Amino acid sequence: MLCVDKTTPGNTVTDYQDKDNREYKYNSFSMIKITSADSATFSFARTCTLENNNQTIKLKDVTVKELNENDEVLGKTFDIGLNCPRGSVKNAYILFTDALSPSNTGTLPRVGAIGRLYSDETMATKTVLSVKDSVTGQYLTYRQPLIANGDFFNKPTGNQAAGFYSFNQETLTINRKPKHRYEVYYRKLPNSTPKAGTISAKMTYNIYYD
């Protein structure tokens, strides 16, 4: 949620209204919902299992002041874990789809590829939610899932490879289980002043392995 701090001197409601016409803090929160695709579409060999395949990530509150001073502010991280019997899977890949706008690739006009997810609240808050790979520091590119037409053997190449990521590369180990970490950011629209409010988005992911 984009909000204001009403208690610190210089940050009171009157201060915000006088300086930036900012609004009161809402009694709600911003979030991003991350869900795996149906098991029939992401798993062909049915060897591996996903850990916590349906997550609702509550983002931390940030102030309009923070977002005005920084193009983006970290909202929270989340992890995706793939559990496979030892030696059963050689390669694993993951792709992400904007669940509210499947054709969205994550770009923003005049800015470029920033892992932007579609949100109904963007115009009201002048803010978008963007997702990065925590390991590479790169914004995600979104795409629609591959057509499930048989066993998956090879990673797409050329123009078909955009948004298709190696999942088992440089994984993060938490509680002795391999995971991959991602970061969700609030990001203000270019040439705009963020407004207080809530913003939410939703994405799905597919994991393919051989």
Automatic annotation (TrEMBL):
Residue ranges of every copy of the Fimbrial-type adhesion domain listed in the record: 45-210
GO CC annotation terms, alphabetical: pilus
Gene3D superfamilies: Fimbrial-type adhesion domain
Gene Ontology terms: biological process: cell adhesion
Protein name: P pilus assembly protein, pilin FimA
Annotated source species: Avibacterium paragallinarum
